[in-house]
Amino acid sequence: MSNPATLSTNVALDAVKTDITLDGPHGPRPKPFFTPRRIILYSILFVACLYYLFPLYVMITTSFKTMPEIRFGNIFAPPIEFTGEAWSKAWSSACTGLTCQGLSPGFWNSIKILIPSVIISTAVAAVNGYGLVNWKFKGSEIFFAVLIFGSFIPYQVMLYPLVMLTREMGIFGTIPAVIMVHTIFGMPILTLLFRNYFASLPPELFKAARVDGAGFWRIFFEVMLPMSLPIVVVALILQVTGIWNDFLFGVVFAGTQNLPMTVQLNNIVNSAQGTPEYNVNMAATMLTGLVPLIVYFVSGRLFVRGVAAGAVKG
Amino acid sequence: MIDNTKTSVSIRNLSLSFGSVQVLQEMNLDVKYGEFIVLLGPSGCGKSTLLNCIAGLLDVTGGQIYISGKNVTWEEPKDRGIGMVFQSYALYPQMTVRKNLSFGLRVAGLPREEIDKRVKRASEMLQIEPLLDRKPANLSGGQRQRVAIGRALVRDVDVFLFDEPLSNLDAKLRADLRVEIKRLHQRLENTMIYVTHDQIEAMTLADRIAIMRDGIIQQLDTPHEIYNRPVNLFVAGFIGSPAMNFIKGDLKSRTFVADGVTLPIDHYAFQPGNEALNANAILGVRPEHVLVGEAANAVPVNFESEIEIVEPMGSDTIAWARIGTQEFTFRADAELNLEPGQKIRLGFDPARASVFDAASGERI
């Protein structure tokens, strides 16, 4: 009944079938998403998240509450009467010591300190790093070692000498003094960062530019700097957050007229007069933390890329 | 002392050491105008270091460098009249090809029209005009190296320095660009100094090859002389693939005795004064100079041997046999269909062989 032709097609089909099974998906069986291991892992992560986020939650809700509501005592409850009053008071009318202008003068002081310090320290460190890698001079390695060693000396040891130095220079108690101190203290880590980054670039690039006749500054500006965006971003972030969050140098060197935001925040929160206004304190703290927070959010990915780039080679 | 009309690059007693490591030792080298010199040697022999010294990218410890008759030992790279091409291309990544080519000219402050003219000429020569507005990241390896050559070309220099320019390219591209460089040299007729560890590049490109080892030039001669009359065991073993056979034995009144096998080498061209030398010696025979079968009987030295291993290469076959107890490689026509275990007659002409002193390694 079956003619040879159909028989042969059947055989052929069988062959195809076995081929299909052989070519089908293979490899180890995929694991289900919810394994006991994962459940434990994610539970721990979740609890850790809550642990870190709760204070933030309390801060934000409290800052939008009124004082009577806070006195009621239920700190985890969301605000019943939602108000931004505490925020505006923290910004413009809370008392910081003698004056009652809120944090706003401190904010502008911080900006005045921040921008020049960040620019100067990053620029100087970039040139340092470039010079240490590409224009090695006698003793450049020792110079670098000393610079790095400098970053291990506690700030407190250098505080008084720096006070004397700035006083002799006639800038003690002014913004230039704070800028100078920030630039000095940023130098070791930033130089290390830039040096490592420039060391990771192919040395032939520098040689080619030398053969092309370019000098120290032209190679720096036209060849090296355009390639160093990732590491410049890292340096900027480190410096912006570091300098913004600084308290010690601001309180010592800036002078009473130029206190940065962190110092003024302290003055609001630790004010000894009257009843403590928790909502204003919380709002003021949030305001002060906003700048570094924004910087991290905006530049997170660039930051990671830059840190990775700077980490290559010692 | 230095003949300015003939030497383009002249190196006098050049030394360089990094700490206690001596990289170049009392080096002397004269390169004629328009000559193509290849510096060849194994890694770490100092060939790239020498090139960097000529370029002015490394400060020397002692000696002088003259380019076009001028002492440039302490001049800046830009004042030496050199252009350089690197193994890693070293193109400025943020600049377009056009900007890459013109960077040196802009640094030199040339007028715009002149820059455009030179960039146009170089890009025509290297056929990279369609790429002028691209960034290096969007170029293939071969295109990048063309641009790098172009960057040296636009500067209108007397001396071109190449630092292993083809080592990062695949085999096909390497062959193409090799021809391109040769064509460029014939057209421009300027001096080229070329560093490589690839003996094929060296043999095909060079007017003269300088074989280097441990910071010393072992032999400086034409590819033909280096291949046929290597001055010592190192050069003999370094040049040629498969490597030259080295047979240990004794040289006694114009006969070479190895493991009881006597090889009459009357026809060998001894170095003057060495004709009557008796010494422990090493006989060097290139695998491609060995004659096989009937043809072996026509040359003065021939012997019977058994084939041990056969490596067919397509065009020809490399086979391993023995002379006495020592290994002996030879290259044979693939059509002979050699088999392991086969007895065969092998022979070579002593006039094409090399004899070295076993103790000093020098040619006898």
UniProtKB/TrEMBL annotation, chain A:
Key word tRNA-binding present in the record? no
- What are the ABC transmembrane type-1 domain coordinates in residue numbering? 107-299
What species is given as this protein's source?
Pelagibacterium luteolum
Cellular component (GO) terms are: plasma membrane
What membrane topology does the UniProt entry give?
Multi-pass membrane protein
One of the GO BP terms on file: transmembrane transport
Q: Does the keyword Cell division apply?
A: no
Question: Could you tell me what this protein is called?
Answer: Glucose/mannose transport system permease protein
Q: Which UniProt keywords apply?
A: Membrane, Transmembrane, Transmembrane helix, Transport
Subcellular location as annotated:
Cell membrane
* Principal place of residence: membrane
- Spell out the family assignment given in the record's similarity comment: Belongs to the binding-protein-dependent transport system permease family.
Q: Which chain regions cross the lipid bilayer?
A: 39-60, 113-133, 142-163, 169-194, 215-238, 282-304
Which Gene3D superfamilies does the protein's record reference?
Answer: MetI-like
Q: What is the lineage of its organism?
A: Bacteria, Pseudomonadati, Pseudomonadota, Alphaproteobacteria, Hyphomicrobiales
Automatic annotation (TrEMBL), chain B:
According to its UniProt record, where is this protein located? Cell inner membrane
Q: Name one GO molecular function term.
A: ABC-type transporter activity
Instruction: Specify the ABC transporter domain's residue ranges.
Output: 9-239
- PROSITE patterns from the xrefs? ABC_TRANSPORTER_1, ABC_TRANSPORTER_2
What do the Gene Ontology cellular component annotations say?
Answer: ATP-binding cassette (ABC) transporter complex, substrate-binding subunit-containing
Keywords, alphabetical: ATP-binding, Nucleotide-binding, Transport
What is the membrane topology noted in the UniProt record heading this document? Peripheral membrane protein
The record's Gene Ontology biological-process terms are:
carbohydrate transport
Looking up Pfam families in the UniProt record yields: ABC_tran (PF00005), OB_MalK (PF17912)
Protein family (similarity comment): Belongs to the ABC transporter superfamily.
What protein am I looking at?
Carbohydrate ABC transporter ATP-binding protein, CUT1 family
Question: Which organism does this sequence originate in?
Answer: Pelagibacterium luteolum
